[in-house]
Amino acid sequence: MNFESKTAEELMATENSAETKMRARDVRVSYGDTEALHGVNLDVYRNEVLALIGPSGCGKSTFLRCLNRMNDTIDICRVSGEITLDGQNIYERSIDPVQLRARVGMVFQKPNPFPKSIFDNVAYGPRIHGFTRDKEELRQIVETSLRRAGLWNEVHDRLDEPGTGLSGGQQQRLCIARAIAVNPEVILMDEPCSALDPIATALIEELIDEIKQSYTIVIVTHNMQQAARVSGRTAFFHLGNLVEVGATEQIFTNPGDEKTQDYITGRFG
Ligand SMILES: Nc1ncnc2c1ncn2[C@@H]1O[C@H](COP(=O)(O)OP(=O)(O)OP(=O)(O)O)[C@@H](O)[C@H]1O
Fold first, then answer.
1. Confidence at 4, pLDDT banded by 50, 70, 90
2. Angle formed by the axes of helices 135-148 and 118-128, to 10°?
3. Which of 47, 60, 115, 172 has the most CB atoms around its CB within 10 Å?
4. How far, CA to CA in Å, does 29 sit from each of 24, 135, 233?
5. DSSP code of residue 73
6. Longest CA–CA separation in the chain, Å
7. CB–CB of 214/131 below 8 Å?
8. What's the gap in Å between 71 CA and the centre of ligand 1?
9. How far apart are CA 182 and CA 175, in angstroms?
10. How far is the CA of 199 from the centre of ligand 1 (A)?
């Protein structure tokens, strides 16, 4: 059987298997009276890079924000359906969204370092979550996170300087270091390179390639070459629906749906 072309029933059957890190079932999202996502079923596998692609306004970012309840912060937004992380419904009352966002971190389109020093940007999460017993442990976490984000060599001698003083690409790597510092399991990236030049973009793509062994990554991108370069699977969204999901190579060379074909060949979007 083709692993990538499971029916909804077969997907349900895998719900508790170790390969599924996050599972979305019949996810509907409305902003006020307007439904933006019309019942999405999608699994995110452990340690994969999953790319979400599709024309502007199709609901990629809306879906991404469901995965760590960032939509909770939008007053008019309503989410229904079920999303699980390791089998647990993340919309249960008992789930603290702040704790959830430590497990499912997020990197935004525009680098958004806090108006704090480089050190404090990375130390912020471990401090508020009480991860460290002493200053040395915190320093270690900051160094490790900056190293993993490929930024240590550029900033180790100016950790006290403001994060906002770095270049755009460095700021984005700082934001990745900040996400990594709380030891997340999943990292959501919402067009993380759209504000960056090609060199800074290449560095972020290399970084994604390096860190994917340790994290599950879901990335929204408008750049199809980027999806092809960084992801193992790609999901194509259109007008609030998930049209298809499959191995990236298959989606880009032999998509199952005409709409996907039209999008990847530039006929719309
Ligand atoms: N905060 C919001 N308030 C009202 N409507 C919203 C809000 N955010 C998104 N929408 C609407 O939901 C739909 C999906 O938007 P979303 O940003 O998820 O799409 P997208 O595929 O990520 O688009 P893009 O590629 O342009 O970022 C759009 O019609 C958009 O106008």
1. very low
2. 120
3. 172
4. 12, 43, 23
5. G
6. 57
7. no
8. 11
9. 12
10. 28
Which residue has the CA at smallest separation from atom 23 of ligand 1?
57
Q: Which residue has the tokens 């419904």?
A: 89
- Opening angle at CA 191, ends 46 and 153, nearest 5: 80
| 61 Cα: distance to centroid of ligand 1 (angstroms) | 7
Enumerate the β-bridge partners of residue 28.
38, 80
Q: How far is CA 89 from CA 80, 93, 180, 248, in A?
A: 12, 9, 23, 28
Domains of the chain: 3-111+185-264 (3.40.50.300)
Locate all alpha helices (DSSP H) within the chain, ordered by sequence. Answer: 8-13, 60-66, 97-103, 118-128, 135-148, 152-155, 168-180, 198-211, 224-230, 248-253, 258-264
- pLDDT, tens only, 128-157: 988 888 999 999 999 999 999 999 999 999
Whats the size of the chain, residue-wise? 269
β-pairing, 186-190 vs 104-107, is: parallel
